[in-house]
Amino acid sequence: MNPILRYTATYGLLSGLATCAVLIAGFTLQDYLSAVHQLWFGYLVMLVILTFIFVGMKRYRDVERGGVIKFLPALGLGLAIAAAAGVAYALLWEVYLALTNYSFMDAYTAGILRHAKAAGLSGDALARKVAELDAMRVQYANPLYRIPETFMEILPVGLVVALLSATALRFPKFLPARR
User: Fold this and answer.
1) Is the pLDDT of residue 29 over 90?
2) From CA 36, how far away is CA 112, in angstroms rounded?
3) How far apart are CA 12 and CA 16, in angstroms?
């Protein structure tokens, strides 16, 4: 197998699996966190777990390229790993949704509504929020909307990690390969 494909598949799948597993575990906290806190928690988890991009790029540089890699090949590998992680994440999320009878969006919107009411939202503002959440629930029920949306949750974080990693790893003296 081509080394680039092997590294992309290995580290992309590891990253996608780990991200999905930790985020699913994080749903146990969903009743205790606001929607904003949940969002930040999710992106923080993705950022930490997407370090598999860095690890995969470094391993490729050290093992396959003798400790030296240029920016563009490193970036290409990083983007490929990020894309593979995004695909793995989206597919694993679909499996999770199927196993939980697609109950995520009901629980998620109920949590948002509960926090909005606790913050004092009422009357017309509450009615608008309910309508907004209902529209979001209808959109999310469509897999042609949901799957790309899920993929796009992780891809921007992966792009940033790939850029930073490619920038750092192009310098052979940055975490040099051990002989």
Assistant:
1) no
2) 9
3) 6
